[in-house]
Design a protein that fits this description.
The protein has 19 helices and no strands. It has 451 residues and is an all-alpha fold.
């Protein structure tokens, strides 16, 4: 029996994990041309962002739990099929809201990749005795950031070549490749040692609470206050249901007993809100505020992802989690401050500096939070825990989508962009405060990763 990590698993693990980030980054430069093509505003196109993350926020913990019970192969293959179906729908639909449906299906399809990868890392680590495979965790982060590098630029070129539909249809060949890789490489055998029934009532309550909150955030008006009330009621029923269940959808008892892990989830929520707000808000502002083309806007997003890759590679093996998290928070605050100084005549050099600053904070915070999760989570529920981490990230993306729809719909796009930046500046301050409060727990993890 081999005592080294099965390198055949790397390709499907990486490909499955990057399907979500490449679609997240490509859509950033497609929102404006989609709005023009269908005659809708930014408040409508924001649903293309939020709908995908609504689906992933629900699907990620569900699929993660199923993977913990049944193994990664079947769930991975089903996910790739859904990704392909979404690409086909988006390629032919003449109706804007069917495009939103395609994004929901795409979101569900991408939910299996990351929990499957984390499950395989854990199972391979157990098999080989390499309990802390820092190199493969770093590879997953860098891979996601690498595809994000080409995402906005690729999206811009695809739109230039054949319109926004090519941004969606590229998922068809990606889905075929991922399916074949998963079918021939992922292990078929899996001992069902933790099989349990899914708490579908809990999933329903969670879904109602999440959608109601999202709908209200997308339409923040007194007319829709009933959706906020529904969020509170469904949330209360969800908590009561989960506390009474022997095997709940989301184990709230585990969360209450693991406060450091809860703070990790809160940090990823705040960081994701800021990061996605920048990605979608900045891309739209470059096109409608700065007057750049989709290709140029995509090119100007590249410094963000390039600097993110570089900082991830440099800091990937470092186990100084507090330093990475705290420095990332400070750089995040400074980068947002620079956004408040942008105008429709800001120089390209200045915009590149701003974009690179966000890349540094993205690389540091994404890597640190993923590594911290690996050690804070219960090994028996690593799939569900990693799925829940992504869920908090997707909640941040939904909040970013809602703020983008609200602020970027302003007649003065630069003024709206500055409003969104100020909101994120407040979130960055909260992030720094929580990180400082949690410094002792993060410092205790120093030296945990084997190099």
């Amino acid at each position: 029996m081999s005592t080294t990590f099965n390198k055949k698993l790397i390709f499907p693990m990486v490909l499955g994990s990057v399907l979500n980030p490449i679609n997240s980054s490509m859509i950033a430069v497609a929102l404006v041309p989609i709005a023009v093509a269908f005659g809708v505003g930014s408040s409508e196109t924001a649903w293309l962002v939020s709908a995908l993350y609504f689906a992933t926020a629900i699907g990620q913990p569900v699929v993660g739990k199923l993977i913990d019970s049944y193994g990664p192969r079947k769930l991975f293959l089903i996910g790739t099929v859904l990704v392909g179906v979404a690409g086909v729908i988006a390629l032919f639909t003449p109706v804007f809201w069917l495009l939103v449906v395609a994004r929901i299906i795409l979101g569900l399809g991408t939910t299996a990749g990351y929990p499957a990868a984390m499950f395989l890392i854990k199972s391979e680590g157990k098999r080989t005795g390499e309990d802390n495979p820092a190199w493969i965790l770093t590879l997953l982060v860098i891979s996601s950031q690498t595809v994000a590098v080409i995402g906005p630029t690729l999206g811009g070129f695809l739109i230039h070549l054949g319109g926004f539909r090519l941004v969606f249809s590229i998922n068809i060949p990606l889905a075929v490749i991922a399916f074949l890789a998963g079918y021939f490489v992922l292990p078929k055998e899996h001992t069902k040692t933790q099989v349990s029934k899914m708490d579908w009532v809990g999933v329903l309550y969670f879904s109602i609470a999440t959608f109601s909150l999202l709908f209200f955030l997308m339409n923040p008006h007194i007319t829709y206050i009933s959706f906020l009330v529904l969020t509170i009621i469904a949330g209360f029923l969800f908590v009561r249901r989960e506390n009474a269940m022997k095997d709940p959808f989301i184990n709230l008892d585990v969360l209450r007993g693991n406060r450091p892990l809860i703070r990790t989830y809160i940090r990823i929520l705040l960081a994701a809100t800021v990061q996605y707000s920048f990605m979608y808000g900045f891309a739209q502002w470059l096109e409608i505020g700065r007057g750049l083309s989709e290709v140029s806007a995509g090119m100007l997003m590249m410094p963000t992802f390039i600097s993110s890759i570089i900082i991830s590679a440099l800091a990937g093996r470092s186990s100084k989690y507090f330093i990475k998290t705290f420095v990332g928070g400070i750089v995040q605050f400074l980068s947002i401050s620079l956004l408040l100084l942008t105008t429709n005549t800001s120089s390209i050099i200045y915009l590149i500096i701003v974009a690179a600053g966000f890349g540094i904070t993205t690389g540091l915070l994404n890597l640190a939070n993923q590594n911290v999760l690996y050690f804070q989570a219960d090994p028996k529920t690593i799939g569900a825990s990693s799925g829940l981490l992504r869920t908090f990230s997707y909640f941040g993306a939904m909040l970013a989508g809602a703020s983008s729809g609200a602020f970027m719909n302003h007649q003065n796009p630069t003024f709206g962009f500055h409003q969104m930046a100020f909101l994120n500046l407040c979130l960055a301050l909260i992030f720094i405060g929580i990180t400082w409060y949690d410094r002792h727990n993060l410092q205790k993890l120093k030296g945990s990763i084997k190099k």
